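Q: I'm writing up a methods section and want to include an example of the input and output format. Could you take the sequence below and give the corresponding predicted structure tokens, formatted cleanly so I can copy it straight into the document?
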Amino acid sequence: MNPLISFRNADIMAGDNVVVHGLDMEINAGDLVYILGKVGSGKTSIIRSITAEHAIGSGEAEACGFDLKRIRQRDIPKLRRRLGVIFQDFRLLMDRSVQDNLDFILKATGWKDRRKADERIDEVLEAVGMTTKAHKMPHQLSGGEQQRIAIARALLNDPEVILADEPTGNLDDETAEEILRLINKLNKENGTTLIMVTHDKSIVERYPGRVFVCSDESCSER
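A: Here is the clean output for your methods example:
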């Protein structure tokens, strides 16, 4: 079986600068993978290279069948439809309801059938326990509820991989634990590949998975 994501001696760029040198990483379907490191260690840059935001310098890299080093601009949306991204700061559109936030993503990724789009929104809201919140505006929700909506948004296109960038960084401990249980459930029960960037080693102890540690512009499995 070919890996879902692979880096082979890959340099990850941020503009003209190499931020991660010589990365070797293979991630298979269903894996739970943590990328650990301090702020500025390059861990988020790995996520951004998977979504084709950051370029690959030397070496080779692939994600979901796309060559990240040679990907054409017009193919980047196709790649991103196969990825679900969860951010630390939620990134909801504050001027529209939960329903409209999710509908915006579906329209942007080519959904045209209104009935099927509404059904999909209902499905993802049910998956995150937020079926009664579709009419709410983001500012009417708690931080944990906003992150649940962000997870629902990441699930809309039934992604092969979920990329979670410090998903509990802005949440209190109790709410953070709820979100971690939810994300872990998606990995264990749905078989969705999960890559989580975090600086919190205790998460790995509670929800074990493969671990890559980033420091001094390099990242390797421990």
